[in-house]
Amino acid sequence: MRKYVIMGVQGSGKGTQSQLLCDDLDLVHISVGDIFRWNVQHHTKLGAQVRRIMNAGELVSDDLVEQIVRGRLDEHDWNFGFVIDGFPRNGRQAEFFMESYDIDGVIHLELPEDEVRRRVLSRRLCPNCGMDYNLIADRPEEEGRCDICGHELITRADDTPEALDARLRDYNEKTRPVLELFRRKEFVHDIDARPPAEEVQAKIRAALNLPAYQAEKPS
User: Fold this and answer.
1) Which of 119, 129, 153, 162 has CB 3.0 to 4.6 Å from 11, enough for a Cys bridge?
2) EC number(s) on record (predicted)?
């Protein structure tokens, strides 16, 4: 069983790299952000709470994040392991996590803040089907319209310059110290997140001594 934590600032590619790891290793990707977005899109009680927090320009509390992660991990559907992103966000959560699970490695995706801003502020979302786009590398065929359902694309509530500034402050003040806590266990792997996704994935697998990544060939 393999259990990994993936960390990095917003826009560093945590979701993409997690999914590439999970696809052929039978791991489960647990994304705190995806859990929150699913609840917002499906108008659940949790979704309404998260929407109020985001509309106020605030960050979801650490207590709520920890509650969600505990509940998700308790489902125990990760027979071969998991890759978790968006958690832990502070020292208390990291201590809980290390006490509760034998982590096999921490992947730290490094990305300069100017590149973070370029990537994040180019992201778009279809509020109807949930499809993600990036105006830098993955533009829709019709400007401003989803290729899948044709709905008008929007900017996520947490992808504004103001929200990004808040998230970067939160990351630097709370999450970077978590990395130092993990480093005491000597299993943090720093990976440059600037190259193409396939190259980043290859470096991750080499660092973790996993089977080499084989990019899918177009049919």
Assistant:
1) 119
2) 2.7.4.3
HEC profile for the chain? Answer: CEEEEEEECCCCCHHHHHHHHHHCCCCEEEEHHHHHHHHHHCCCHHHHHHHHHHHCCCCCCHHHHHHHHHHHHCCCCCCCEEEEECCCCCHHHHHHHHHHCCCCEEEEEECCHHHHHHHHCCEEECCCCCCEEECCCECCCCCCECCCCCCECECCCCCCHHHHHHHHHHHHHHHHHHHHHHHCCCCEEEEECCCCHHHHHHHHHHHCCCCCCCCCCCC
**Could you list the pLDDT tens digit for every one of the 219 residues in the chain?**
899 999 998 889 999 999 999 988 899 999 988 888 888 888 888 888 888 887 776 777 878 888 888 888 888 888 899 999 988 888 888 888 888 888 899 999 999 999 989 888 888 988 888 888 888 878 889 999 999 999 999 988 778 888 888 888 888 888 888 998 899 877 899 999 999 999 999 999 999 999 888 766 544
